[in-house]
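Tokens as discussed.
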């Protein structure tokens, strides 16, 4: 109900006063929302820190843009909505759009065997199709992980041609096409190659002609030459002792990533899903989800994840690479979108975009009980020390490389997984949620009294998996450890890993190997920072090799 204050006896003046007061109320409301948004980014809003660019879109208008922090610390250049960022895997929707356009033009079929365009890929038992690549269900091993396992780092240079050659050496795959959904950069890298070979133009040239120029995205391109000068470019950053350091890459790979763009240009792309400047048929195809062989429908469509958030349809995709992180989320039915582009690897745009949406769409959410977002927002349950200690231990999966170590420190559970440790706050006697974590983590232990034997872990944006607790293993003797020592070779990388016994532990000593020793969780099964190893034995029970599950790469090594 509006309340009008009478400043004049005339009806006209009264009406004007009501309009002015209503406008003022709207203005104050918008100002209150923007203040809350600014508070979310306050820790980076300075002249001595990298930060982020933000864009909020409502009903076709870019209603709020802000830059927080610095694009370049050396020259004191602040971030604005015109600052150019690398957007990592948020690029994948543009690669998928190029494939979709070629499909609609009749220049390729989504059900074509990829060997029609990339004959370098080995002929496997079952054909891998373009559609398999689009939805991350191809079974191909991820080239970034393959490069890491072969001893390369982000600082090493290797060409797209070398990556294609590496993929051509893979005699096996992670799984048969269509059987699983496993995020794979190799698929989108190959999609870039397919665009070039099907169209006769580079991925950037094709995207410029069919997407970027038609939409007026003048500051957007696929960065296929790392020496290219880019005006208004932000530097990527990582934390360093006493401050920050520049993070960069010499890779010219595009398709799986490589798009440089701005908040203002992404606004034009976002609006193409409503104004259909690129055609209705294309935008409909972009939202078509993948389907597994068993008929299960996926959330992943064409470089876009189509899901729900607090009862509302959500279309989104994040990205992260060499000191940059990005997110573009869209609530299509509310015509509301949020763009966040960051130049510091520790910033989480995915969470920030959703927190912005929480402010603006608070009265639109339809779920009666929205999911808990942070441990700070809940009243923790009270558990005894014994109830907490019963949940400690190492949990692992037979089907994935995820290992979660749960420990107790100062009356609080902590979980270490995927390279980071988070504090856990209890919601009840079995369910816990992360506190101040880089990603929202939920872990639910098996119910019942006594020691927990199983746990269900959900790491938002990464994985959701059932784990079982590893039995407590006796320390291996020196003779038992020596049985595992030796050199192991993978022809597909190619690489030789040397495993030695040091200080009563097994340690790999090959180039760029993590210094941390292997940790046993079951007979012949060990964990390592790069994944999980399962050693194999021959008929005489001697070690013959090991199978390494590094998440996006599952590969066999043979003992020399």
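Sequence:
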């Amino acid at each position: 109900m509006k309340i009008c204050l009478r400043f004049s006896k005339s009806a006209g003046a009264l009406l004007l006063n009501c309009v002015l007061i209503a406008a003022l109320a709207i203005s104050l409301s918008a100002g209150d929302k923007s203040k809350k948004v600014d508070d979310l980014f306050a820790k980076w809003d300075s002249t001595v820190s990298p930060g982020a660019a933000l864009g909020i879109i409502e009903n076709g208008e870019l209603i709020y843009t802000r830059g927080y922090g610095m694009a370049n610390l050396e020259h004191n250049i602040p971030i604005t909505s015109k600052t150019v960022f690398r957007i990592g895997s948020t690029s994948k929707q543009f690669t998928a759009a190029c494939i979709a356009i070629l499909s609609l033009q009749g220049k390729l079929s989504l059900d074509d065997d990829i060997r029609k365009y990339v004959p370098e890929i080995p002929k496997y038992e079952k054909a891998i199709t373009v559609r398999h690549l689009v939805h991350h269900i191809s079974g191909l091993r991820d080239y970034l992980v393959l490069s890491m396992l072969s001893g390369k780092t982000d600082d090493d240079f290797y060409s797209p041609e070398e990556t294609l050659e590496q993929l051509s050496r893979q005699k096996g795959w992670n799984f048969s096409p269509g059987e699983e959904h496993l995020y794979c950069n190799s698929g989108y890298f190959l999609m870039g190659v397919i665009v070039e070979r099907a169209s006769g133009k580079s991925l950037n040239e094709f995207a410029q002609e069919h997407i970027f120029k038609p939409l007026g995205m003048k500051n957007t391109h696929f960065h296929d030459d790392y020496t290219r000068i880019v005006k208004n470019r932000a530097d990527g950053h990582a934390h360093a002792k006493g401050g920050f350091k520049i993070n960069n890459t010499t890779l010219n790979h595009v398709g799986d990533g490589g798009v440089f763009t701005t908040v203002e240009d992404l606004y034009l792309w976002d609006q193409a899903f409503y104004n259909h400047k690129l055609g209705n048929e294309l935008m409909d195809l972009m939202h078509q989800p993948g389907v597994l062989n068993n008929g299960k429908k996926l959330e992943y469509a064409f470089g876009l994840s189509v899901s729900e958030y607090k009862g509302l349809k959500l279309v989104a995709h994040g990205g992260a690479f060499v000191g940059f992180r990005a997110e573009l989320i869209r609530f299509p039915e509310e015509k509301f979108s949020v763009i966040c582009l960051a130049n510091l690897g520790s910033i989480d745009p995915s969470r920030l975009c959703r927190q912005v949406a929480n402010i603006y769409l608070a009265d639109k959410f339809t779920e009666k009980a929205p999911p808990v977002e942070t441990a700070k927002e809940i009243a923790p349950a009270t558990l005894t020390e014994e109830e907490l200690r019963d949940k400690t231990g190492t949990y692992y999966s037979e089907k994935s490389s995820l290992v979660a170590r749960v420990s107790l420190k100062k009356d609080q559970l902590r979980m270490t997984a995927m390279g980071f440790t988070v504090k856990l706050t209890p919601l009840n006697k079995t369910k816990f949620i992360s506190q101040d974590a880089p990603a929202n983590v939920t872990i639910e232990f098996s119910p019942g009294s006594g020691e927990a034997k199983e746990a269900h872990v959900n790491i938002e944006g990464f994985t959701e998996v059932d784990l079982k607790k590893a039995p407590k293993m006796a320390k291996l003797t020196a003779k038992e450890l020596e049985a595992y020592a030796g050199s192991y070779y993978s022809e597909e990388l190619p690489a030789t890993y040397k495993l030695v016994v040091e200080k009563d532990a097994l340690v790999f000593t090959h180039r760029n190997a993590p210094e941390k020793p292997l940790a046993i969780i079951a007979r012949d099964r060990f964990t390592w920072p790069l994944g999980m190893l399962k050693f194999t034995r021959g008929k005489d029970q001697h070690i013959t090799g090991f199978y390494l599950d590094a998440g996006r790469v599952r590969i066999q090594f043979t003992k020399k």
